[in-house]
Amino acid sequence: MIWLQAIIKKKNKTKERKQNLTFVFQKYTGNKPVAEFMNSKIIMTSSAAVLAAAAFIFTFMPLEFLRYTNLESTKTAELLVQVLGALYFGFAMLNWMTRTSIIGGIYNKPIAVANFSHFFIAGIALVKAVLYNPDLSYAIWIIAVIYAFFTICFGIIFSRNPITEKEPA
After folding, report:
1. Are 139 and 59 contained in the same domain?
2. Residue 135 and which of 26, 28, 55, 165 are 20 to 30 A apart at CA?
3. 128: which residues sit within 8 A by CB, 6+ positions away?
4. Around Cβ 1, how many Cβ atoms within 10 Å?
C-alpha cells in the first residue's frame, strides 16, 4: 500500500506542476504583456531591421562603404566587408525568426547571449573610437549610439525573467 500512496503523490505533484506550467504559458499566449519593463518582440524586430540594413550595404555595396569610410579599397578589404555582411545577415535572420518567442532569463538564452555579446563588444569598440577620436563621421556616432542602445536592451533581456511570477487564480 505504501507504494500505491507514493504513486498517487507523484501523480498529484506532476498534475500540480503541469497546471502551473499551463498557467505560465496561458499568460504568455493570452495577449497579455509578458514583462512590464520591455517587450522583446520590439527589440528583436528592430535589431533585425538594423542588422539587415547593414547586411545589405556590406554585401551589395562594399566598395561604396569602403570609400565612404575613407578605407583603402582592396580586394581583401572588399571580401572582408562582404563576409561581415553575411555575418550581419545571419544575425538579422536569427533575430527575425525568434522575434515571437519568449526571450530572457532561461528562455532562448543562447539567442540573448549572442545578441548581447555582439552588441556589447562592438558597442564598446565604437564608443571607445568615438571618445578618443571625436572628429569621426556623424555616421559612426549614430552607429555607436544605436549599438549602445541595443547593448542596454539585450542586457536587460538577458538578465531578467520575461514572465512575471503570480500565483494562479
Report:
1. yes
2. 55
3. none
4. 5
Considering its fold, how many domains does the chain have in total? 2
Could you tell me if residue 165 is inside a domain? no
For residue 7, what pLDDT is reported? 63
Q: Which tens digits make up the pLDDT trace of 136-162?
A: 888 889 999 999 999 999 999 888 877
Interatomic CA distance for residues 165 and 30, integer angstroms: 15
Alpha-carbon distance of 135 to 83, in angstroms, equals: 28
Q: In which domain, by residue range, is 25 found?
A: 1-32
- Mean pLDDT in the chain? 82
- CB burial of residue 55 (10 Å; 0-12, 13-18, 19+): buried
pLDDT of residue 106: 80
Domain check: are 55 and 117 in the same one? yes
Q: What is the largest CA-CA distance in the chain?
A: 82
Contact assessment for residue 82 and residue 59, using Cβ atoms and an 8 Å cutoff: yes
**Which positions of the chain have pLDDT values less than 50?**
21-22, 24-25, 29, 31-37
